[in-house]
Design brief:
The chain has 181 residues and is of the alpha+beta class. The protein is built from 5 helices and 11 strands, in the order αββββαβααββββββα.
Amino acid sequence: MFKEVDIERALLWIEPGPVTLVSAFDGKRNHVMTISWTIALDFAQRIAICTGSWNHTFDVLMKSRECVVAIPPVSMAEKVIRIGDISGRKVDKFKKFCLTALPASTVKAPLIAGCSANLECSVIDHLENYNLVILQVNKVWESKKTERSKMFHAFGDGRFAANGKQMNYRELMLDKLPPNL
């Protein structure tokens, strides 16, 4: 019924969260990185991203202690993947990839136009041993144009999928959901 496979395949089953763009501002210019390792921590609007100093934007994020986590639609998939494929140390990715930066209201990092949602965040912790950056979401901006169902997800092995079919089991979970959700 089951067959044992390589241990590295574990992430292929856990990974498929939405691919995101994380923007930060260094005081002079905007930076952006692609992150597919995002974690919802709780209903207190705390999330985590897994990244480290191999990403230039991480260094900017840790110095500024704030960022925007943007959820791009599947129509931006190739651009988002290419953004994650180069370093921003010497390249202005906003210019190279024609990203439009919009002002945020609680952080200096920019919102990214064309994304389905933008979450303004402050760094509240960094678990260095695990490369986890814990973020407090301060404000959420949702696009009026892009459908939530058009996000895309990484499998962790270079393959991606776009979800489209939605199932609503809200009634079964009402006793566990916050009243405003």
